[in-house]
């Protein structure tokens, strides 16, 4: 019974959400092509917008993931270590070695340099 | 019901205005920024009203049409001291600066309540670059680079990266002449690699700036030094306000504008200087960036020259200034940071000179030349120097490039003086503000 009520609530919420969007879509027409062009103060782009560019914060993200993953797995590992002993240490060592390659790469890219 | 309630609510909101500046249009902008109920927005996408302030030269009409069509409907266009485009001949035109805020508010109310139709679109609703690629998925299909989907080439790495050797696709765009982050009228073709300016080609010089009438009069007859110095300080404060707005320090920009509006010989900038230091403005204006060589600095003249260590100031040749004990202030750096320190120091210096000159009732004595806020005006007016950006900006990151441009006063001086705003209207605005 509770599941059915929950389902009905979900369906009503979904229906209402879609309904609101549908109503708005009925009233709005697609903006014109000139309106959709990027705003450059009256100027025009010369090249296509599909381009590859350097995400400069990329090494910082790499570093965050390296340390984050390390910590994320080390908490459950600390529990398992009590049961498994040396085997868990070896496994964790391998995992950390892989992650540290990322850290070493980040180091080489100058991520630890304060700018 | 709900829609009409929302419309009424929207009509009562602040009027989002996007200013497209023509010749001498920035004067009214300083005033609108301080008018309650008007919000100057930085993108046409946020605006309901396009305000074309000042005459737009015919060669920029095509860019103006593109800009006009970028406002989301419903929107309206108001022309302030500017002739409407031929397609919009029936649009509202206002020439009186005092009537402008009310005209903007009325236009917005009418637009939001549905009593006025949205401005018509001027450009055809067609893709600017129609599909020319081959294949189903848009890659074009010919050769490694895949043709020219949508009529424009794919961005490609045509230049070596000048920062860290990581060569990536460079993106070339034509910016301006109505981009609010650039001086009015400035247009450039910019190639960017990520956020790095790879190349900058100035295509349109900024509009000549109009100086206050006192600088023009100083070339005809002796004028009160206090008046001359207050006009100079006002010009620099308005430039500072532009840069503060660019740096996201909107509140301080309004402080600088208010100060410039009510400027008198008693005014001081000490408090503004302290606020700028505390909020990190001088750190934002990247030290060591945008450094001018001696030749470039001499060409730009004025503050830029003195910030680069050149002791060039026509005031030191005027006997009346010498009696006031005038010696030019100079900095050594020549970079963006030094230029702003120089600007603040010169505003302070001007106010002190104005105070002393008023006490002694001193008039300028040299009429063959005058030091304008833009630089020395002797036989020739200060000329446009925006082409130095081509050497100065490559290698800078985008934010550094923008702060560098804002710190430089590059536009030439117009042969026509600025029209003064009436004192009564200024007081009215102040009272409303209070």
UniProtKB/TrEMBL annotation, chain A:
Main location: membrane
InterPro entries found in the cross-reference section: NADH_UbQ/plastoQ_OxRdtase_su3, NDAH_ubi_oxred_su3_sf
Membrane topology per record: Multi-pass membrane protein
TM annotation in the entry: 57-82, 89-107
EC numbers for this chain: 7.1.1.-
Catalysis performed (reactions): a quinone + NADH + 5 H(+)(in) = a quinol + NAD(+) + 4 H(+)(out)
UniProt keywords, alphabetically: Membrane, NAD, Quinone, Transmembrane, Transmembrane helix, Transport
Enzyme type, top EC level: translocase
Entry's localization field: Cell membrane; Membrane
Family named by the database record: Belongs to the complex I subunit 3 family.
Purpose of the protein: NDH-1 shuttles electrons from NADH, via FMN and iron-sulfur (Fe-S) centers, to quinones in the respiratory chain.
Listed name of the protein: NADH-quinone oxidoreductase subunit
Automatic annotation (TrEMBL), chain B:
Region (Disordered) location: 113-140
Recorded coiled-coil stretches: none
InterPro entries according to UniProt: NADH_Q_OxRdtase_suD, NiFe-Hase_large
Pfam families assigned: Complex1_49kDa
Residue stretches making up the NADH-quinone oxidoreductase subunit D domain: 267-355
Protein name: NADH-quinone oxidoreductase subunit D domain-containing protein
